[in-house]
């Protein structure tokens, strides 16, 4: 068994309880799980419950139940981001006191003309933290990394992103800050996740650099594209995963990841499919993109 190979690999799955798991989340979770277990690595679970108002009641329990019925076994206790506010506050205050982050009082309406790229209006105004969003100053630099599936990815932080929010005006910490601190704190070596987060990675690389954290390896699962080749909107969601569909959906997720499960697996149990996936995991087979039809989202 691969589990006896000593490995320094630590992977994770980090769902947000704003909704239930769907086929896209299954593909990401499965890729992350198989990639870790294939080398005898650890696989951790972190609930990204940063935004209580957007949390779907019952979603946390439903996510855990779905993971169990689809055969995922995480190591150790699940981490909750809601327990980590002190750690986020400490780093945020440090960045603020060093002048690397600043308070922004711009209204949504004021920012409308800039199409999501913050033009730095409050950069040098010295606002106090109270009742303001906190933004991280970004350098006028391009950040690049080589994704294990998507290849080289580049983004110019100044031109394409702008100074970004690390704590919202309502006091909630932003995903970008929390994810970087928690991945480092949990010792994550390999991030395998949905392709919708590819364009968040350069912001995370910048935060890692600023905080002197080790950069993990990245693998973003296939981008799901429309028939014309365009990326699917983030709002696109397939229905929640149902427990009775676990074996066929696991097989479908394996195929979406380019793996080639033998036909004997058609009547296999969840445990058998997962074991096959671990034994045969081959990153080189993962396609960069997948059409909606291939992904069989609906
Ligand atoms: N919580 C994020 C999501 O559900 C994933 C974070 C990550 O994997 O970096 O989209
Ligand atoms: Zn502002």
Task: Describe what you observe in this structure.
The chain has 298 residues and is α/β, with parallel strands linked by helices. The protein has two domains: 10-80 and 176-295, HUPs (Rossmann fold), CATH 3.40.50; 85-142 and 155-175, Rossmann fold. It has ten helices and twelve strands. The protein has helices spanning 23-37, 59-69, 85-97, 108-111, 157-161, 175-185, 201-211, 246-256, 270-280, 292-295, and strands at residues 10-13, 42-47, 79-80, 101-104, 133-136, 142-147, 151-156, 164-167, 190-193, 217-220, 223-225, 289-291. It has a three-stranded parallel sheet with strand order 1-2-3, with helices on one face. A three-stranded antiparallel sheet has the order 4-5-8. The chain has a two-stranded antiparallel sheet with strand order 6-7. Helix 1 crosses helix 8 (246-256). The protein is globular, with a radius of gyration of 20 Å. Bound molecules: glutamic acid and zinc ion.
Features:
alpha/beta, Rossmann fold, 2 domains, three-stranded parallel beta sheet, three-stranded antiparallel beta sheet, globular, binds glutamic acid
User: Shape from CA axes?
Assistant: globular
For the record, the CATH architecture of the largest domain stands as 3-Layer(aba) Sandwich
Catalogue the unreliable spans: none
Number of strands: 12
- Taken together, the total number of domains comes to 2
Per DSSP, the total helix count is 10
Report the sheet with the most strands, covering strand number, pairing sense and barrel closure.
3 strands, parallel
Q: Examine the coordinates and then state which fold CATH places here, giving the name of the CATH topology of the largest domain.
A: Rossmann fold
What is the typical, i.e. mean, pLDDT?
93
Give the name of the CATH superfamily of the largest domain. HUPs
Please trace the helix and strand order, writing H or E for each element.
Answer: EHEHEHEHEEEHEHEHEEHHEH
The rounded Rg comes to: 20 Å
Ions, cofactors and other ligands present here are: glutamic acid, zinc ion
User: Strand order within the widest sheet?
Assistant: 1-2-3
The N- and C-terminal alpha carbons lie at a distance of: 36 Å
Q: Strand portion, in percent?
A: 15-25%
Percentage of residues assigned to helices: 25-40%
CATH C-level class of the largest domain: Alpha Beta
Structural class by sheet pairing and helices = alpha/beta
């Amino acid at each position: 068994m691969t589990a006896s190979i000593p490995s320094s690999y630590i992977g994770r799955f980090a769902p947000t309880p704003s909704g239930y798991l769907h086929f896209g989340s299954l593909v990401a979770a499965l890729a992350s799980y198989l990639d870790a277990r294939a080398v005898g690595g650890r696989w951790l679970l972190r609930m990204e419950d940063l935004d209580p108002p957007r949390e779907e009641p019952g979603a946390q329990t439903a996510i855990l139940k779905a993971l169990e019925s689809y055969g995922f076994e995480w190591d150790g206790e699940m981490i909750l981001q809601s327990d980590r506010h002190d750690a986020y506050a400490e780093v945020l205050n440090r960045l603020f006191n060093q002048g690397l982050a600043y308070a922004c009082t711009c209204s949504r309406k004021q920012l409308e003309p800039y199409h999501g790229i913050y033009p730095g209006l409050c950069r040098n105004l010295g606002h106090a933290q109270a009742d303001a969003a906190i933004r991280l100053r970004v350098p006028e630099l391009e950040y690049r990394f080589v994704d294990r599936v998507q290849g080289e990815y580049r983004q110019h932080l100044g031109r394409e992103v702008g100074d970004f929010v690390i704590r919202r005006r309502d006091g909630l910490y932003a995903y970008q800050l929390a994810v970087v601190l928690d991945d480092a704190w949990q010792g994550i070596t390999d991030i395998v996740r949905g392709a919708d987060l590819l364009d968040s990675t350069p912001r995370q690389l910048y935060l890692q650099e600023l905080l002197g954290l080790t950069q993990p390896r990245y693998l973003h699962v296939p981008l799901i594209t429309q028939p014309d080749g365009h990326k699917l909107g983030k709002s696109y969601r397939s229905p929640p995963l149902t427990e009775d569909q676990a074996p066929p959906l696991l097989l479908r997720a394996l195929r979406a990841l380019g793996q080639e499960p033998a036909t004997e697996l058609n009547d296999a149990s969840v445990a058998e499919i997962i074991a096959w996936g671990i034994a045969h995991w081959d990153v080189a087979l993962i396609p960069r993109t997948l059409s909606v039809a291939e992904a069989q989202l609906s």
